[in-house]
Write a structure and sequence with these properties.
six-stranded mixed β-sheet; Rossmann fold; 34% helix; 15 helices; 17% strand; six-stranded parallel β-sheet; 451 residues; 3 domains
Length: 451
Amino acid sequence: MIKNYVIDTNVMIHDPNFLYKFSDNNVIIPILCIEELDNLKKRDGIVGYNARNVAKELQRVMALGDISHGIKLPDGGTIRVELNSMDLGAMPNGVDMSKNDSKIIAVTKNLQDKNPDTLTILVSKDVYMSIKASSVGIKVEDYQNDKLQTDEIYKGYRDIELSSASIDAVYAGGLVLSPELLEGVYPNEFFHIKSNDTTGHEVLARYNGEKLVPLKYTHDTAWGLTPINREQKMAFELLMNPEIQFATIIGGAGSGKTILATATALQNVIETNRYRKIVFVRPVVAAGNDIGFLPGDENEKLRPWMGSFYDAIENLSDIKEQSGSKSNFGSKPTFTVDDFIEQYRQRGVIETRTFTYMRGRTFTNALVIVDEAQEMTPHIAKLMLTRAGHDSKFIFLGDPSDNQIDSHYVDSKSNGLVYTVDKMKEFKITGHVTLKRVERSPLAKIAERSM
């Protein structure tokens, strides 16, 4: 049954390719939404970037016909801009009709009344708009196309029991999994294997696509840091392994995701020169104030947003000094973390960036860390990963729970972090781990669990 989908502006900003995601149904864009996109096109950051991308995509489609009457799409549906149906009398008293949201709801209500035999659905990511539209009898849906369809996010590891002989086989060169154990296993998934016949006999193993093998880097350190629980050891394995070109690490506050990623980055760039540079990326626009309102150049504007990286480097410098190890550039400098980062920034070894400046970039032989990745839309996550050049490695970090998401365009099931975890888990060059334990301090652990 063909349906009419009326698209809110925030859906188009969320995914500029939205028009191809509604199968053989009718996609309807109120002219008011085009006006809103026009007002957003010059905004800095992700919102302005996506607004411009929507216009480009619509322009491509308009080469095929008249968008005011409807244009046939590749999947058999149609798209049109609705110029009429603006009768505000369809709305009840008490609604502020000066707001565009109310006018878009009125357009949807009028279309519903004009086409009683066709189901008309308003698609919006705005909760208040959904409440108001539902109140006047309109069916409302969130944009589901890139939303995770399960409550269980792939965590990257599992616990099993096997015989001691099987554990010995892991250490002896690898264990080939039986067909029943192999079902649903992804490359680079980790196994915590405990013996079912010998107390205390266990092993952490990784599935390399053919068999279970023991962890390679479990006894290594990075910039003086050693992982301190099993999930951190798994994450450390992904971060240190050059064959893993994309790693995602999910964890709550204090679980160690940022300091692990930063430590392995410093180790692989400054110590061993495996990669040419480190690129730290933060989604500052989605998290609140626009970067354009801060004074100075890009680096100065980004400084307030890069606190997690600065803190990690400062803590790692203390750990490194206590361990007595030295880098290729000497022991820990006596100047500040800002001076340390600036020194390596001038050498081209460290970059700090926001998504705003990713267009057209190609990162070759670079280690790119994207923090707070739960703020990304799936479209931006794809934009980031397509910046990968030869010999590069990308790391996404974040906490996808709703209380850690400030962006109006994503939630715990539609953000770019969980989207990439789900879509990228099947490949040999990718890996994922969810960190469970809070290691920052007893106070942080209590706060994470109790508040």
